[in-house]
Amino acid sequence: MENMFFDDSIIYISNGLIDNVTTDNRNRLITVSYSNHPNSARREQTVRLVVNSRTLILDEFGNTIPSSELARGMVINAAISSAMTRSIPPQANAFMIRILRRPVSDNVITGRIIDIDQNSRMFTTITGNNPSSIIRFTVPSDARIFDMQGRPMSFSRLFPGLRVQVRHAAFMTASIPPQTTAREIRVL
Q1: Using the 8-state DSSP alphabet, how is residue 127 labeled?
Q2: Spatial separation of the C-alpha atoms in residues 63 and 65, rounded to whole Å
Q3: Using the 8-state DSSP alphabet, how is residue 152 labeled?
Q4: Global pTM value
Q5: d(CA 18, CA 97)
Q6: What is d(CA 36, CA 27) in angstroms, rounded to the nearest whole number?
Q7: What is the DSSP letter of 126?
Q8: C-alpha Rg value of the chain to the nearest Å
Q9: Residue in 170, 165, 155 with CA at minimum distance from that of residue 187
Q10: Sign of CA dihedral 43, 48, 54, 59
């Protein structure tokens, strides 16, 4: 499948990288680089997308989000108008943007494990005794886990009551409790 194909008045871009985000009086302007060769790692094309109140913007889970969440480093799919300006880079209206990946950036919390699901590789923490600080973490197989001496340990050795420092993805679901992905866990 090609990364870009034409359908009369719509151009579809797959795996575009947001290079820049600016705002004019009414619109957000997103500069996106992409390749129309599926096996090429090189970004060959650049387009500036005009994102306005009519643009449908979806996050990784298909939820509608505001344009203010679009950021440099995100990988997106987009449906844009084939009517483009002749400027460099060309400019086109964006009809739909779907975030595929956000830039990797981590946050760190320190808390106590209150629940663990060994089968699903998930655990829940609380900071202090504050119920609003509860977070549920998914632990992928490539997450790093360290014991109190800094030695690698397995997920199966984690248990409720342990105090941990968790480096996690910057995004969280809007669920209760919020959920995110743990990248590194250190037992304290």
Answers
A1: S
A2: 6
A3: B
A4: 0.53
A5: 11
A6: 26
A7: E
A8: 21
A9: 165
A10: positive
Q: Report the b/e string of 70-105 with b at 16+ CB within 10 A.
A: beeebbbbbbbeeeeeeeebebbebbebebeebeee
What is the CATH T-level fold of the domain 106-187, as seen in this structure? OB fold (Dihydrolipoamide Acetyltransferase, E2P) (2.40.50)
Cis, peptide link before residue 160, omega less than 30° from 0: no
Considering the chain, tell me which residue range(s) the CATH 2.40.50.140 domain(s) occupy.
Answer: 4-101
Going by C-beta distance under 8 Å and a sequence separation of 6 or more, which residues neighbour residue 156? 118
Q: State the burial class of residue 24 (Cβ atoms within 10 Å of its Cβ: 0-12, 13-18, 19+).
A: exposed
According to DSSP, the β-strands at 28-34 and 10-23 are antiparallel
Residue tagged 């985000």 (tokens): 21
Could you read off the pLDDT of 155-178 as tens digits, one per residue? 999 999 999 999 998 788 888 999
Q: Classify domain 4-101 by CATH architecture.
A: Beta Barrel (2.40)
Structure confidence by residue, pLDDT tens digits, 96-151: 999 998 876 668 999 999 999 999 999 999 998 899 999 999 999 888 999 998 88
